[in-house]
TrEMBL record:
Major site of localization recorded for this protein: membrane
Superkingdom, natural source: Eukaryota
Organism for this UniProt entry: Poecilia mexicana
Cellular compartments annotated: Membrane
Keyword hit for Membrane: yes
Pfam families named among the record's database cross-references: MARVEL
Keyword entries, A-Z: Glycoprotein, Membrane, Transmembrane, Transmembrane helix
Gene Ontology cellular-component annotations: synaptic vesicle membrane
Topology with respect to the bilayer: Multi-pass membrane protein
Protein name listed in UniProt: MARVEL domain-containing protein
Length: 296
């Protein structure tokens, strides 16, 4: 057994952090329980200062959460329901977290113990790449939906809005107050973990893509196209350079022959006059043609 996957960045960091963040995301959302307490003080009723406890939690079907509030003008109580159903976004967020946790755990086992089968026929990296892209989109979509639903849940359970649902609190002579408000830090943390998972899985796409045949084929093609000019640089460029140099020499020889044919060799212009013969006594005996040379 070859433990190649132990040196894979996905095995060392990304996948363990993937299922840890997934656990934090769906645990902080799915295990939440909120508690709200209000007090109603009826001026014309004894005893007064009645406390009302309101509990809610996952999957946040608030329209099913009800509580009883006293009617100050009568000796009876009314049943009041909260507003809103936010179970779809909450369940979608938790489902994505659970599935991401299971897949991360399963993928880590495959990377460590079944690396050869994972890389066989390129099916493992291809499936892993498609699943990673799918989870990236699902994490982003579910986190956005859950963040919007969390804002609506806070508005629906706002103590001011809850007190307005009670008929006795809408009367000016009665006094109503909030004694305890729900804590939202846990749900806020779940939203943060949701977006962290979206970023983590989006960055994980690159590591999975490097294992696919698409990346390897593209890399081989780029390397071959880059090496091709280097292979042809030596002989091809050398032959072309020699050939061009030979053509240049031939052109020089042809130009020299043309210039040589165009050169005109001309003698100095001469003039033949009458010849003069001198005797010993410096007398002219006979005259012959005289030669006069004109300098060019």
């Amino acid at each position: 057994m070859k433990l190649v996957g132990l040196y894979d960045p996905r095995t060392l960091c990304i996948q363990p952090s993937g299922f840890i963040f997934a656990i934090c995301a769906f645990a902080t959302c799915g295990g939440y329980h909120g508690y709200l307490q209000v007090k109603v003080d009826c001026s014309a009723r004894r005893p007064n200062n009645l406390s009302i406890n309101i509990e809610f939690g996952y999957p946040f079907r608030l329209q099913q959460i009800h509580f009883k509030a006293p009617l100050c003008d009568a000796s009876r109580e009314e049943v009041i329901f909260l507003n809103g159903d936010f179970s779809a976004a909450a369940q979608f967020f938790v489902t994505v977290g659970v599935l991401a946790f299971l897949y991360s755990f399963f993928a880590t086992i495959v990377y460590v113990f079944y690396q050869n089968k994972y890389l066989k026929n390129n099916r493992g990296p291809l499936v892993d790449f498609l699943v990673t892209v799918t989870f990236s989109l699902m994490w982003l979509l579910s986190s956005c939906c859950w963040a919007k639903s969390l804002t609506d849940i806070k508005a629906a359970t706002n103590p001011t809005e809850v007190l307005l649902l009670i008929a006795s609190c809408r009367e000016k002579e009665n006094r109503c107050a909030t004694t305890q408000e729900p804590f939202w830090s846990r749900l806020n943390t779940s939203t943060v973990f949701g977006f962290l998972n979206a970023i983590l899985w989006s960055g994980n796409i690159w590591f999975v893509f490097k294992e696919t045949g698409w990346y390897k084929t593209e890399r081989l093609y780029s390397e071959s196209s880059f090496d091709q000019p280097d292979d042809g640089f030596g002989p091809f460029r050398q032959d072309s350079f020699t050939e061009s140099r030979g053509n240049y020499d031939k052109q020089l020889e042809r130009q020299a022959s043309i210039n040589q044919s165009q050169v005109n060799f001309s003698l100095p212009e001469t003039y033949l006059g009458k010849a003069v013969i001198y005797e010993r006594e410096n007398k002219v005996a006979s005259q012959g043609p005289a030669i006069f040379v004109n300098e060019m």
